[in-house]
Amino acid sequence: MSSSKQLIINCGASRVTAAVISSHGGTLQIEKLVTEELQYDFSNEEAMLPSVGAALKLLAQTHKLSGKATLIIPGNQVLTKTIRIPHIEEAKRAQIIAFEAQQNIPYPLNEVVWDSQVVGDDGVETEVLFIAAKSNLVDEFCGYVSAAGFTAEGISAATVLDYNALQFAYPELDDDVLLINIGARSTNLLFRNPEGFFVRNIQLGGNSLTQNIADSLGKPFVQAEAVKHKFFAGKNSYSEDDSGAQLLNTCSESFMRRMSQEITRSIVNYRRQKGGAAPKRILLNGRGSLSKGLAEQLSITQKVPVEFFDPLQNVTLVGSIDADIDVLRMQTSEIIGEACRGMIPNTAGVNLLPESIQSAMAFAQKKRFILIAAACLALVPVPAWVAVKSAHSVYSDQVDVIQAGLQPLQLNQTQIRDYQAQAELAEAAIQRVEGLVNSKSNWIQFFAELQESLHLAEDAWLDGLNVLREQSADGKSSYEVLVKGQLLVREAVDGAENVDENLLSNQLKSLRASFEDSKFIVSSHSLVITWTKLQEGLNVLPFSINLVVDPAKPL
Rounded to two decimals, what is the model's pTM? Predict the structure, then answer.
């Protein structure tokens, strides 16, 4: 059986965990697992990335880790959106996803790095999970990764990895399950059913409880974090009736109520969007889920069994791992979910590593081979150079002979080019004559159509016909035919004042419309009627019409 080994680094909001995991057949083995706590003020979100960079350097220097690694960023650093698109072939899906996503995210698509995961397809619509992170954040993060001596093979989002871990740990599970992974800054909610999954990230985590304690005690965030850990670990000096203990319990109860409300709201949202059943079982994971009484509170409010999720089922721990097994269960779900992506069907996962960095990595992997190939290519000409040098004198004599015979051929080439230019001019003239010949039949048909239109109009005849030809700067030709004629006005015998001008105008407009019915005419843009002749006592009405000729049927 084939085996592989990979380094996975989970960069959470409060700690960075690195694991060296090998796969053999269908099993996973954790060969090394180390954790570095982040040292920064958790209330200052901008300080997170520099602290992650410092932790990555400690992993490299203290624990001797380096090389290629898959990085995981927390759910609070990514935007997760479920969108629906029409069912189309996979090659065209990315364009539709990009268009739909731009309508649903609060900033331009060119400012993010994004990927997508199909979570459902009924043949009519495809349900897609759109996951994105700000480009400047990812670039800065990659800078810290590179500075620590690691090469990023991919950047995965923690939001969807619990789905893989759940399938790998509980392969026989077929119930509707809600997996709640409570982190420091946010909580990932994974709804899993036999047809697929649905995820939601809520901005409520262990730091929310710490901030509440800090506000209640009037202490800085860092001190409140220490008080929280000591109190809930039973390592404090508070008695049960102490006011400080009561205050901390009140903060904890408030946090659990908020968490329960957010979970209830998420379940309602899930059932509305997916049309599925409510979860029949809740699994807890993440360090924040260890809050005392949280499991019992959720079991009461949601009226379903609540258990702790164990992602280490079907995983073997080898080597020396200096960590409590219960703690490992709470902080390895995303790592196991990433490690088993190639081992289970229908896995979930995205890659938020920018294409520019992926291209640079691909080139770096080939660089050594390129250098070797370049060295080999540099040596290839040496034998040929020796052979060329030895034959140089022979070739020089032959060149002199060839150049002597080349001069008359060059003169012939010049004459041939002159003949070619003359032939091109003659060809252009012939084409113009052919155009005139081809248009002869068009004129005959056009005159026949004009004659028929005049016959139908009655009392009208033509005095003149002019062709106006123009050529635009881009070489395209346009044609117009100016038609001049007269219309007999029978009413004029009783005086010009008795003439119905509207009737005559309509008669001429009808005549113009009949001209436009010709297959050679596309439109007419003017009709000029000269009423002065009629006012002078003449019983004829001059007119002129501009007809635009179809370029495809020139006259």
Answer: 0.64
Are 172-311 and 445-549 equal in CATH topology? no
Nearest to 6 by CA among 179, 187, 152: 152
106, exposed or middle or buried, with CB in 10 Å at 0-12, 13-18, 19+?
A: exposed
- Give CA–CA dist 55/73, Å, rounded: 14
Contact criterion met (CB below 8 Å) for 493 and 545: no
pLDDT tens column, 20-75: 999 887 789 999 999 998 888 877 888 899 999 999 999 999 988 999 999 999 98
- The H or E element containing residue 273 is helix 243-274
CATH superfamily of 172-311: ATPase, nucleotide binding domain (3.30.420.40)
Using CA of residue 448, residue 451, residue 455, residue 456, what is the dihedral sign? Answer: positive
Render pLDDT for 231-240 as a digit per residue (tens, 0 to 9).
Answer: 776 666 555 5
Order of strands, edge to edge, in the sheet holding 15-24? 150-157, 67-73, 3-11, 15-24, 27-37, 315-317
Question: Can you tell me the mean pLDDT for 75-83?
Answer: 89
What is the CATH number that goes with domain 445-549?
A: 3.30.70
Pairing of strands 177-182, 281-285: parallel
